[in-house]
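Thought: the user wants the 3D structure for the chain below. I'll pass the sequence to the structure tool as-is, report back what it returns, then summarize two notable features.
Action: structure_tool
Action Input:
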Amino acid sequence: MATRLDEIRSDRLSKLTKLKELGINPYPPKYSKNFVKISKAREEKSEVDVVGRLWSVREHGNVVFADLKDASGQIQLLFQKKVLGDNFKILKLLDAGDFLGVRGQITTTQAGETTVDVQSFELLSKSLRPIPDDWNEVKDEEVRYRQRYVDLMANEELRNLFVAKSKFWNSMRNFLIKKGFLEVETPVLENTAGGADATPFITHHNALDIDLYLRISTGELWQKRLMVAGFEKTFEIGRQFRNEGIDREHLQDYTQMEFYWSYANYEDSMKLVEEMYKHVAQEAFGTLKFQIDNHEVDLAKPWGKIDFSQIILEKTGKDIKKDSMSGKEMDQLWKTVRKSITGPVFLVGHPVEVSPLAKRQEKNSQFVERYQVILAGTEMGNGYSELNDPIDQEQRFEDQQKLRESGDEEAQMHDYDFVRALEYGMPPVTGFGVSERLFSFLANKSVRETVLFPLLRPEK
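Observation:
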């Protein structure tokens, strides 16, 4: 039994055939006129050319009104039979959803609506499916994500979200470039997945006949090799991949920024990161105050510090300095504590067991020079003074390798070439990484909602 959608599509296919019979190409390669954005056209007082999608069509005998939308806005169109002559009949073959180019005079109706009095028009693309009237009432996330193009088409607020996301990354890029950092690109396919505690994706390289890993960090060990090579400030914004669960904060492939800075330590890095976060938030959202779930976050206030061991002791009564426990157990304790912390604060004083790539504190070698940005109960960035002692790094890799061999798939792999690079000498370096989770939290959305096309299972 035919559905309403089937009937509409069949009707539009019939219109498509009739357009072709009239010698009209329903999918021309371009619009040859010198068109302007609708937002600019609304300010004109003369003849204009505009392009966009028909959003609604309202027939009144020998007059047809319609709304035309482009990325900049919407404008009303007026089609009159007395002006268009035989071409007026073609309007019967058009539908909401079609793309048009129109030329006409800007006028104002008696109701005060800025309108293009159309003198000529050209079909640029014939749509075969209708724009759903009730799309914004769809609550099923999978339906919205699977037809994200409709979701974006129907929801201006969602489109604006991704405009803000573009500003977010571009403002971060520009901030770092102005601070003297060089943007670089490092491998996505790796023989050894390093730079983080995570389960990697595995793929196969046919030409070399080897298995490879998709990177789990945005070039951490590669960028530190660049510090060995003589570069002093680098950063990368790119995709990384972790084969872990899906929730409000986690995705399997996502964008991350990492920077590395020679002759500086984690204290210098914290100052730079605080300045960068404030800059990026202001550029992308126009404010430094955010409501994130039940947290009211003000990035403008002074950023304090909390100690890893002390906050766990205060909140749980567990003393990690005295109680014997693994790094994973320490991390799990911290995860039970963090949800109550609004921030912005820097978490410092991490044990060496949870930080295999960070430099040890000079005063207490059981702890490292590491920090995490804490906002609205979760980690929003991770940095440290990088370990540049090849002997210490070798031992920590061996400890991590033992954890992997005992079944911990997230433990770090032993990267022998990286240790060799360190043996050539790496200066003092501080590094930092932040993912698009920060943007999603500032927008008060799940990270999946702030991805243009979230990964889904194949449609059945």
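Final Answer: Structure generated. Residues 35 and 69 are 13 Å apart (CA to CA). Residues 4-125 form a domain with the OB fold (Dihydrolipoamide Acetyltransferase, E2P) fold (CATH 2.40.50.140).
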